[in-house]
């Protein structure tokens, strides 16, 4: 997968890259942002210099992640406006508290918090069921821990199906962000072995409504589906890039097992 690197480029070139990446013509962007195609052309060729407000206006209508909006501002000669606060910092106390409440309330079902690169930020006690026996060096990244042959992969009953699902999510994330680090991670994960077919398109079988994670743990097969939650109105890069993935029992036997082990 080829990803253009946005750094160290003039504003006009970067603007054109994002417009084309979003499969928009100058007319499309003109209509959406309510500015003339002539002005967009001048901005892309460097004949006009954008104001700070214009950079933010175009970033909004190109649906850029906050991190990339800062890059576009820098390319235009302006200071970034979106901060990137450590989760442990005082101003993030409410966010951290909300995360901890969600994780704790979800026990005994597994739940994890990841950043934009799928690095593990936090988890609840329930994740221990899935993480047991995995090489500790792999646990720092949820995708590596899931798909590496020394990670959870040997215990996943439907590895081909689940691997295709995870790689598909990662491809869509790369398409949205053009993040070169995600592209490197994707290339690495694609090299991991898999002895099962990987469907190119997820099609439901009889009665299927979602793709489950079917995993052998504690001497039995357990089945989960997941819900991914993000913060709805982020103004900080860290907050905007956090995702909480909560796993729920996909069948009655898994639900009963988790209830029994937690009592």
From TrEMBL:
State the UniProt keywords alphabetically.
DNA-binding
**Name of a matching Pfam family:** HTH_31
Judging by the UniProt lineage, the source's domain of life is Bacteria
Signal peptide segment: none
Q: Cite the HTH cro/C1-type domain residue spans from the record.
A: 15-69
GO: which molecular function terms? Answer: DNA binding
* Keyword S-adenosyl-L-methionine belongs to the record: no
This one is known as DNA-binding transcriptional regulator, XRE-family HTH domain
């Amino acid at each position: 997968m080829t990803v253009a690197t946005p750094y160290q480029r003039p504003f006009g070139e970067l603007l054109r890259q994002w417009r084309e990446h979003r499969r928009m013509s100058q007319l499309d962007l003109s209509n959406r942002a309510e500015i003339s195609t002539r002005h967009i052309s001048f901005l892309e060729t460097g004949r006009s210099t954008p104001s700070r407000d214009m950079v933010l206006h175009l970033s909004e209508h190109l649906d850029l992640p906050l991190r990339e909006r800062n890059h576009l501002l820098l390319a235009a000669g302006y200071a970034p406006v979106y901060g990137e606060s450590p989760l442990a910092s005082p101003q993030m106390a409410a966010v951290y508290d909300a995360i901890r409440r969600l994780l704790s309330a979800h026990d005994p079902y597994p739940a994890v918090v990841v950043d934009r690169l799928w690095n593990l930020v936090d988890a609840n006690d329930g994740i221990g069921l899935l993480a047991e026996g995995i090489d500790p060096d792999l646990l720092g990244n949820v995708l590596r821990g899931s798909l590496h042959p020394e990670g959870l992969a040997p215990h996943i009953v439907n590895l081909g199906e689940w691997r295709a699902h995870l790689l598909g999510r990662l491809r869509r994330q790369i398409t949205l962000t053009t993040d070169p680090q995600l592209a490197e991670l994707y290339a690495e994960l694609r090299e991991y072995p898999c002895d099962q077919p990987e469907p190119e398109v997820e099609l439901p079988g009889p009665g299927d409504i979602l793709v489950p994670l079917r995993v052998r743990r504690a001497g039995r097969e357990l089945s989960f589906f997941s819900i991914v939650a993000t913060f709805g109105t982020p103004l900080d890069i860290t907050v905007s890039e956090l995702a909480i993935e909560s796993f729920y029992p996909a069948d009655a036997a898994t639900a009963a097992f988790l209830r029994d082990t937690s009592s």
